[in-house]
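Ticket #4471: structure output looks truncated?

Reporter: J.K.
Steps to reproduce: submitted the chain below (198 residues) through the standard prediction queue, then opened the result file.
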Amino acid sequence: AYNWGSYETFLDQCRANRIRPIVVLGYGHPLYTGGPKQGPTTAAARAAFAAFARAAVARFKGRGVVWEIWNEPNYEPFWENPDPAAYMALVDETVAAIRAEAPEEWVMGPGLAGLDPVFLKACLDRGLLGKVDGVTFHPYRFTSPETVALDVAELRGLLARYPGGATVPLVNTEWGYAIGQNAADQFEQRSLLIRIVG
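Returned output as attached by the reporter:
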C-alpha cells in the first residue's frame, strides 16, 4: 500500500503555476533494506522499488513530472557502499517498469553528488544512456559558480564518447550555497545564488 500524502496537492499546485517538477524516486524501505539510505541491492529490494516507481508513475503520469532515479547514489550518506553496477541494476529494473506503465514519461539519473566522472563512466559503460532521457548532477562547490563551466565541459566530453551522448540533456537538479558551509553569510549567499541562475 502506498500513501501519496500531500503529493497530489503539491503536483496540482505545480501544474496550476506552470512548474514542471522533478520528483526523486528514493530511498530504501526497512522491509527490503537495512535503512532508507541503503540501496536496493537484492533482487527482492529492486523488484519492490521498481513496483513503487511504477505505481508512482501510474498515479501521476501526464502531469509533466520529470522522474529522477535515486539521489546521489555515488555518495555514502545516500547509498551505503556506492556501487555503479548495483545502481545500474536498479536503473534497469526501474526504467523497464516505468516504460511499461508510461513510455512517454521523462526519466533521468543518476543525480550525482558533485560531477564524479568515474562513477558516471561506470554507469555509461553499463548502458545508462540507453535508459534515461537526461543525465543529472549536483555541482556543489566551495569556489565561485562560474567554475562549474569547466566541470560541465568535462562531463560533456565524457558523454560525447557514447552513442547519443553528445545531445543528451545534462541537467543540474540540485545546487546551492549554504550559510556556514560554502557561504559566509546571507549577503554572500545572495550574490552566489544570483550568479547560479544568472
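Triage note (M.O.): checked the attachment and the full C-alpha cell line is present. The longest strand covers residues 106-113.
Status: closed, working as intended.
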